[in-house]
Amino acid sequence: MDADVIVVGAGPTGLMLAGELGLAGVRVVVVERLAEPTGQSRGLGFTARAMETFDQRGILPLFGELETSPVGHFGGVRFDYSALDDCHFGARAVPQSQTEAVLEEWAGKVGAQVWRGWQVLDLVDDGEAVTVTADTPEGARTLRAAYLVGCDGGHSAVRRLAGFDFPGTPATRGMYLADVVGCDLRPRFLGERLPHGMVMAAPLGRGVDRIIVCEHGTPPADRAEQVDFAEVAAAWQRITGEDISGGRADWVSSFTDATRQAAEYRRGRVLLAGDAAHIHLPAGGQGLSTGVQDAVNLGWKLAAVVRGDAPNGLLDTYHRERHPVGARLLMNTRAQNLVFLGGEEADPLRELMTELIALDSTKRHLAGIVSGLDIRYDVACDHPMAGLRIPPRALRGADGETTTTELLHAGTGVLLDLDDNAAVRAVAEGWGDRVRTVTATPVSPSAPPATAVLVRPDGYVAWAGEDVDGLSTALLRWFGTPVTAAARR
Amino acid sequence: MSAPGPDARVVVVGAGPVGLMLAGELRLGGAEVVVVERRETPTTESRASTLHARTMEIFDSRGLLEGLGEPPHVPRGHFGGLPLDLTTPSRHAGQWKVPQATTERLLAEWATGLGTEVRRGWAVRDVVDDGDGVLVVGGSGQRLRAGHVVACDGQDSTVREVVGAAFPGVPGSRRLVRADVAGIDVPDRRFQRLDAGLAVAARTGDGVTRVMAHEFGSAPGAAPDFAGFAALWRRLTGEDISGGDPLWVDAFSDRNRQMQRYRHGRVLFAGDAAHVQLPVGGQALNLGLHDAVNLGWKLAAVVRGDAPDALLDTYHDERHPVGRRVLANIRAQSLLLLGDRSVEPVRDLLAELITTEPVRALLAGMISGVDVRYPHDGDGGHPLSGARLPELALATATGTATTTTLLRTGRGLLLDLTDDGRLRGAAAPWADRVTAVAGRADPAPGAAGLLVRPDGHVAWAGDEAGGARAALVRWFGPGRPTAPHEPGEEV
User: Fold this and answer.
1) CB B223 within 8 A of CB B249
2) The domain spanning residue A164 has which CATH number?
């Protein structure tokens, strides 16, 4: 074996996964088709939950100052995402190239290797391992590993080569995406609907504007097709009446509302994550964020399987947990597509959504969907916190103050003993190599919602309760068999 | 009141539910009414069959509920085909299934019992408003002079056409077909979206099944014959209903239009004549009935000479926005019901949102009509101002009564809820139009006094007699002089 895991694709999803695996001590190689990062930044930010996810690994400071916006939209209807606790519309104006640079630096630090210029030509899963054949700068090479994860985007070669089914709906609208220079545009952060289409413009600094142009009736263009700036400028003028042909573009690309999802996220030793598993209309940075969260859901599970201490069926929970999240992502982006980009016929729906969004309960619901904060996995525990992400909260322990976020930096499971309960600590002793037990009390004066909380490495609550009932079952379910006292000695 | 001459007469065109409701309201207000109706006999075909909570409240406030017997009650309705619990703060929450023929018969009996004259077989050919009155010309040249004409002659209103009124909106783009069929046995379906279209089936008690269908992509057009309907049904559902016995088959479209102005001088429009929409969830009939109840007392007051002509403008000002909102929600529902697969995600999302109580309550209030509020200047900003008065029980010196029963005279109501009865005297100059009642209300509405219009909406909610008097003048016209020193009156 050349590695434990091969990750195909060095975008945000692949790099996040590589870092997760590296953090868990797994030998991981990322192979990337492009010899150099593109510098193109399709994704321009990430959601509140993606931000929390980065924070849980201590990566967030590497981004420098991040600006979050409380005000966002759903289907073009503005509202304040802070109606939901801990929520906002995400970090804005973070070029994807920066996100990739940060994640690559982090993944490298924890031992992941990134090999560029590797184009995957074939892969074979023989039941024991996966062998990849690739065209590389040094010629054809093969690479063999226990598992392979395709994080190679919407046009995923892995998905095709491994025979994944990718059902969904074909494109009905084509759109342009470009970073333009010298166009002196009025900002339209949340887009402007005009009779002939929708335009969005967001200044990125130094005279660069990110624009999206969606002209009614524009035939869907293939993503791979080359688009030139003159074409975009002409469409811009038809919609807005503004002449931007005197400017230029750093880069131009096109995309569509084609919406598809892999029917299964795992076939044998091959798995899919990110855009390779789901494509949709971009809306609110959800694509990048969902990919990153796919990676964080998968990383610790795959690491446990590679180490050999995973409980039965753990790897299958990746599809079981993330496929429904992906389906909901497709649902909400499709709904936003119709409400935002639909023609006159959709006006009453937009009016209805506007009226419903005025209700706080609707704001919270939609903010939960778009931010990813409403994700709840079925963890077979009926405590109100179970299956939800652990919210970022300050704790005071024997070693001073910490946070639920900081405790997750190491990528292990965390058992919060919030009532100094020796019985809780005793139950968890056998999992000490995989689960860190922390005795602490919440700093916030409000009563803790539980006296003991078991948090998975991905930040989701596997179990919560008032005493030890169910704790050992949960530890077995998520972390495998305990090490016996004798073995520990 | 002036002696009823031709110019004091109101001619209502159309003896459907809206026209008959209006006629009864006008009679309650003391106006002379003639209803002219093209058809010789009332329809026996039941198209609209749903009465919503607000309509039931109105019927109750006119003593009409008993005439409905005990109609089937369906607490659950839908929004664009998504199940929606219609619970609202109303005694009559939910949907009540009443065949349109029954509603028409009941309203006809009530209106004629109050002195309405109904002339059948009278088709309107022309309507001429000369400023002082209106001449209505019938199909065989017969003439009828009136002070005002109200067109309640349905979606293809002749009056709207001869007046040349603008009727802007969205032309229909889809055809729905509908039939009552005996002798078939198909599963009941509430808005089942199938691969090729929409199918609805509801078996009624008498062995008749109401079926409705839309095939995705089908453009508006004439109704098919029953064989054509059966073929369409088979394409959608795979079921063979061709052996059934059709009572009737009709077709309609999702066109959505609303008059720019509900009032054209002495000619006014109500119900489907003023707005056409997909008959979804029974909102069309209910909306029309509410138009009639808003207009009736106002027109009667103008005809009597009590209120200035400007009161009639409030009919348009109040009902046009309500119609606009209902038409918009019906367009949204049309898209959710009849749109192709691309609307599924919006349906899924709305289904999630409907599980949150504020969204459910908002949509239920909208569908059932209890959320209607007529905002007006100087209403004091009380939460009840402009809203329909939820039923209150009143304990008075002489016994107990509900606001619903007190409204049955069709007069306004001044409710004096003060301990010392200081507000009731304010209504003395309007004693011929407004009943003043002092007592204790349950539940307490959070105001010392309420002025309730004959249509059940709150004209004023406040604590001071001055506010009551201003509202009385505004909605009921000038008062008449009374003996000085009314007992209990304070300024």
Assistant:
1) yes
2) 3.50.50.60
Main-chain dihedrals φ then ψ at residue B426, nearest 5 degrees: -60, -30
Q: How are beta strands B148-151 and B267-269 bridged, if at all?
A: parallel
pLDDT at residue B127, rounded to an integer: 97
State both tokens at B152.
């309640």
Helix (H) or strand (E) holding A23: helix A12-23
pLDDT digits (tens, 9 = 90+) for A348-401: 999 999 999 999 999 999 999 999 999 999 999 999 999 999 999 999 988 899
Cross-chain residue pair A335–B357, CB shorter than 8 Å: no
Strand runs labelled E in A222-368? 248-256, 259-261, 266-267, 270-272, 278-279
Here the tokens at position B53 are 């909570």
CB-CB contact of A476 with A430 (8 Å): no
Number of domains into which chain B is organized: 3
**Do both B68 and B49 map to the same domain?**
yes
A315 and A402 housed in the same domain: no
Mutate to test the interface with B, among A169, A256, A347, A349 (most CBs of B within 10 A): A349
Q: Report the residue from B335, B341, B359 with minimal CB separation from A359.
A: B359
Q: Hey, what amino acid is at A315? A: L
Distance CA B99, CA B50 (A): 8
Report the residue of B346, B352, B355, B362 to disrupt the A interface, i.e. the one with the largest count of A CBs within 10 Å: B346
Segment holding A97, helix H or strand E: helix A96-109
Chain B residue with the nearest C-alpha to that of A258: B342
3-state secondary structure of B211: strand
Q: List the single residue in B with minimal CA-CA distance to A172.
A: B342
With H, G, I as helix, E, B as strand and everything else as coil, classify residue B175: strand
Work out whether the CA dihedral A67, A70, A76, A78 comes out positive or negative: negative
What was the ipTM of the complex prediction?
0.91
Nearest to A348 among B328, B353, B356 (CB): B328
Query: How many residues does this entry show for chain B?
Result: 491
Give Cβ neighbours of residue B113 (< 8 Å, ≥ 6 apart).
none
**Helix A360-371, helix A347-357: angle, nearest 10:** 110
Going by pLDDT thresholds of 50, 70 and 90, the confidence category of residue B340 is confident
Same domain, B18 and B145: yes
pLDDT of A222 strictly over 70 = no
Domain that holds residue A418: 394-488
**Residue B228 DSSP label:** H
Closest CA to A179 of A201, A208, A215, A221: A208
Q: Is the pLDDT of residue B7 over 70?
A: no
Which residue of chain B comes nearest to A357, CA vs CA?
A: B359
Half-sphere exposure at residue B164, Cβ-oriented, CA atoms within 13 angstroms:
2
User: Tens of pLDDT along A84-134?
Assistant: 999 999 998 788 889 999 999 999 999 999 999 999 999 999 999 999 999
**Structural domain of residue B408, as residue ranges?**
393-476
Phi, psi at residue A326, to the nearest 5°? -65, -40
d(CA A396, CA A410): 19
Amino acid symbol at B70: E
Characterize B142-161 residue by residue with b for buried, 16 or more Cβ atoms within 10 angstroms of its Cβ, and e for exposed.
Answer: eebbbbbbbbbbbbebbbbe
Q: What percent of chain B stands above pLDDT 90?
A: 83
pTM comes to 0.91
> Is residue B345 within 8 angstroms of chain A, CB to CB?
yes
Structure tokens at A221: 């263009």
Do residue A172 and residue B329 have CB atoms under 8 angstroms apart? no
The sign one gets for the Cα dihedral A307, A309, A315, A321 is negative
Q: Is residue B151 part of a domain?
A: yes
The beta-carbon neighbor of A349 closest among B332, B352, B362 is B332
DSSP tag of A392: P
CATH of residue B460: 3.40.30.120
Answer yes or no: do A172 and B331 touch at CB < 8 A: no
